[in-house]
Amino acid sequence: MRLPITVPTSIVSSSAARSWRIGSSQPTKKERSPMPAIGYLLPTREQVMSAAGPDFPQIFALAEQAEAAGFDSVWVGDSVLARPRLEALTTLAAVAARTRRVRLGTAILLPALRQPVVLANEIANVDLIANGRLVLGLGIASKGDAITREFQACGVPHVQRIGRFEETLALLRRLWSGQPVTHKGRYFELDNVTLGLRPPQPGGPRFWLAGHTENPLRRVAQLGDGWLPNAPSPDVYAAGLARLAVLCKEVGRDPATIHHAAYTTINVNADVSRAGDELRAFIENYYASPYDVQKNRQSLCAGNASTCIAWLKAYAAAGAKTIVVRFGGPDQPGHLERFTKDVLPAVMTA
Questions:
Q1: What predicted TM-score, i.e. pTM, was given to this entire model?
Q2: Fewest CB within 10 angstroms: 23, 26, 69, 93, which?
């Protein structure tokens, strides 16, 4: 186990206390944008991929170190079979009991794999343990043989995932209201169901929806409280944000009511060649897919601290208010240390 990370006190502050991030050495007011809140994705898949097997003490230590370092949030991914990992909600419940300040999020939970009453109860329980710190990053899952088999094994036809996703989200909100729910939908029927547990957050945790193409953006405009895409570049992110604003207006919604987040994978190392090699190996092992294919699908950055700082600031300049960072490499504790020392202060301070 590594020693606790020593963090400059200047970067440990609440979101409300953050100052403005300066975009250049000689900025004008127009060049300034709010500093992004930085989240850290816990390596729950890497724990299962490791030959040594899951190491829960390390997961808890990483979450505690991220909180002490000034990260805004810690996150976990979700998959049962396609990309096996520690189960998302039970892991967050354990992390919630070991932290006090950081928000806790899923990036990205797949509601369509779950029965909505059971899911509503589980989420309410986690949010109660977390004292209202839970954020739900949600998605429909992508295509592919492994994901199709995963849905089939869970008793859900892959082709139904979008309809089930939308119906489930509507039911979650109703179940968390505390009122009896009677529902006859395409996929679910409920007869006078009242959930005993209610999340401490009014209306339940916020829904941050994934995806940056047209149909996912429409779902964000209609159903989301936030947007959490894995857009492959800041330019793609900015274009998606502009399109989202148009779609919000089409459904009569104020775009400002949607929180803008982003998800990225980085490898930060003074040895730039090593950073690139490690990220490539990580991505190809993680997805069983060529790196050159994945780099056109998701946000990837490898380089020294200056390169990674510029990458994160570019997403902030494009409109991201929260950036969830996954470390793409074998040494997760080492990455957290390097990022905390060499990258985080520059991103979180003027």
A1: 0.90
A2: 26
